[in-house]
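We read letters as residues; the integers encode the fold. Take this protein.
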Amino acid sequence: MSVYNCYDCNTVLCKDCSRKHKDENKNQRHLMQLISNSFILNFKFRATLFSYHKSISDIKYLPNGELIVLIARENAVKTFSVTGIQRHNIRLEDNPLKMTVVDKNTVAVLLINRSLAIVDIQQNHVQYIRDIAIPYSSDTLIYIKNEFYISYFIMRDGIVVIDMSGSVKRHIPLSFTPYDMCYDVDSQRIYCLDREHGKLICIDRDGNGIFTFTDPGMTDLIDLTIDNEGNVLGLCRNDDSSGNVIKVDSNGEKSKEVITNIKTLYVYPRICYDYFTNSVVIASDIEVYIYKKNERVNI
């Protein structure tokens, strides 16, 4: 009975044949995936020319469907179509770390020099917010109603909230460091990744706890995103340099593994969700992998 699909060969295989196929192609590292996964690898492309020094540091989708890609050590913001065609290449003054979507044409990029770059994609324009009070940021931020929520750890853990000019509006103390955050507009909840303890923690905009979720399958939880139904998708990395995606329902009551055997290599991979095509997008090293919803399984 067919159990696995090889993306590189476009072949379905039984369990025994998949082992043999993997051994035969171990040097090529063919991408093998369970056909029962909720999302199946449909397409992949490289976001930049191969280099040992370059990697994708973050990915996000704009409301118009363009994929925004940050290239570390290339100091660039690039955009791509759903078919992997590059449309924009905007240079930054320093190395980009993480970003958040501001509106349909704009992203804010946190740079390694602790400035914020406000990037207007259509106008090909960058405005910098400098000297913001985040010297000990954990390199993650979200945008909520004209304010940036940026995690920090200096004497204590928490979130600093700044306005569009860079002025500090307030601090939200927490008992953990949010190593990644995503915001659900409909529920007005902030989902935080407590990487140190392998937890998904949900809070409101004032930092009040709503729920804490743990799962044995969430080993080395790295990055978060939200799907079009308000569920949280957590990207995890395994000891063998592969990865998987765990879906946690919006109330933190149950979880399900929806993607297996992701090629994550040794850098920190990133995940985002394309609401137009119901696709999960994962970046690893300099490659982008697009996983389409599997219509043959009950998600």
In short: DSSP finds one helix and 27 strands in the chain. The first helix runs from residue 15 to 24. The radius of gyration is 19 Å.
